[in-house]
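User: I've been trying to design a sequence by hand for this structure and keep getting stuck. Would you show me what you'd pick, starting by listing the structure so we're on the same page?

Assistant: Good idea, let's start from the same input. This is the structure you sent:
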């Protein structure tokens, strides 16, 4: 199973000239950034907790083209994402569960879809976000989403008050085959006060999410961007020296 992007008419003709034997789905390509609405809802349709994470790079490009694997939990949910998310929850009559809703925020006008900055629906998932994202929600929002879910199951409400700081929480997934300028030890030395987790990603998910996980929290997006650059800067290639 794989995903490809058809860039032009020649790509389309080539595809139909060699149609894969497996069933396939073809969708219109949307240029945008993925923003989510994640949380817990009770039996009355009341959102007990919600947060949002943003993926600047597409998962397809992370897998196919090896672009840096990173995303971050926003400090606050954007108002238009919250509005769209709540309308989706109402439309699907979602109750008593985690939810993970994905949207595109368009970065290019798309005829018949919307203009730059518009929010467009992508996926509806009646489960928590995958990987370490639930932990990142906890780190970012100073909460315990698992306790909130347990309270919802037992009492249909959240019985814990959370008053800790809200921060940006960023995930960087480094690939074993790429030589980076900064080692994991150097990342730990430079950003030890901000790091929330450093661990290995299971091999089954490493192709998409990277092999080495670095998760850190920051107060500003400037700090997030600096951390991402530090974690991913490639090692400069030294040209071989000819042997005499």
């Amino acid at each position: 199973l794989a995903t490809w992007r058809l860039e032009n008419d020649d790509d389309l003709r080539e595809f139909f000239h060699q149609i894969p034997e497996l069933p396939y789905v073809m969708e219109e390509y949307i240029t945008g950034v993925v923003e989510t609405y994640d949380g817990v809802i009770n039996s009355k349709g009341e959102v007990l907790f919600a947060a949002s994470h943003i993926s600047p790079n597409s998962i397809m490009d992370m897998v196919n083209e090896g672009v840096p694997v990173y995303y971050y939990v926003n400090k606050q949910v954007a108002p238009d994402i919250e509005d769209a998310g709540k309308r989706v929850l109402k439309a699907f009559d979602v109750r008593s569960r985690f939810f993970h809703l994905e949207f595109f925020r368009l970065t290019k006008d798309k005829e018949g879809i919307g203009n730059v900055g518009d929010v467009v629906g992508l996926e509806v998932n009646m489960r928590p976000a995958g990987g370490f994202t639930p932990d990142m929600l906890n780190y970012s929002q100073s909460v315990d989403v698992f306790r909130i879910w347990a309270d919802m199951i037992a009492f249909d409400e959240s019985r814990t008050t959370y008053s800790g700081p809200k921060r940006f929480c960023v995930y960087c997934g480094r690939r074993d085959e790429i030589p980076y300028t900064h080692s994991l030890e150097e990342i730990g030395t430079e950003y030890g006060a901000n790091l929330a987790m450093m661990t290995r990603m299971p091999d089954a998910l490493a192709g998409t999410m990277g092999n080495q996980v670095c998760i850190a929290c920051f107060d500003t997006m400037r700090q997030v961007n600096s951390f991402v650059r530090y974690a991913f800067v490639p090692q400069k290639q030294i040209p071989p020296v000819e042997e005499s």
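That's my pick for every position. To get oriented when you compare it with your attempt: Helices lie at 9-17, 59-64, 79-91, 133-141, 145-155, 184-191, 203-209, 221-232. The mean pLDDT is 92.
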